[in-house]
Amino acid sequence: MNPESSVSLAPRFAWSVCLLLLCLLMASGQALAQRADRLAPMNIEADKLQYDDANQVSIFTGHVVVTKGSLILRGQRLEVRQDAQGNARGVIQGGDNSRAFFRQRRDGLDEFVEGEAQRIEYDSLSETVIFTGQAVLRRYRGTTLSDETQGSRIVYNGARETFTVEGGTDGRTTENPTGRVRALLTPSGTNESTPPATDSAPALTPSPRLELRP
Length: 214
Hints:
The chain is α+β, with helices and mostly antiparallel strands.
């Protein structure tokens, strides 16, 4: 090999190694950020708090706002229990003219899952959210609405990236007077404005147990 060509390739090789290390560090930082999101403390704001130390139950009422990393919950009444390991289980309810609200970012993606219902149950250990009563579940790619599902009861599993939907009278709204399951599902790859993720999570898909009920 020509010595001059060998010398000229060395800086290029070193620059490639630097770029590779930088990409690895960025990917590692993203993963750590998502783990930190799960372990983030829970902050709650409300007009009133009732705390039962014996049963480890806290009841918040009046314009309740919960934040835990990227997780956001809003409603009028929240009952939350927390175990010794810091795992929280909560039930948040909407008001007379408003539904409770849930929003959380999906791991490793510029995507958000949000939902509304008269009652929302959240379990941080199993990463399960249950929406009951006029339930709506949406997925956003960035700020663009990608998927939307309506029903009486929706069970969303964040760890498995699946959800099930049931229809019924509790799902009746002015837009859906029959209460039947309604879904708008956009095929993957149709939104060209969203850049592909280097470490993409599995697509959010309906469970095979999806039920359509009158």
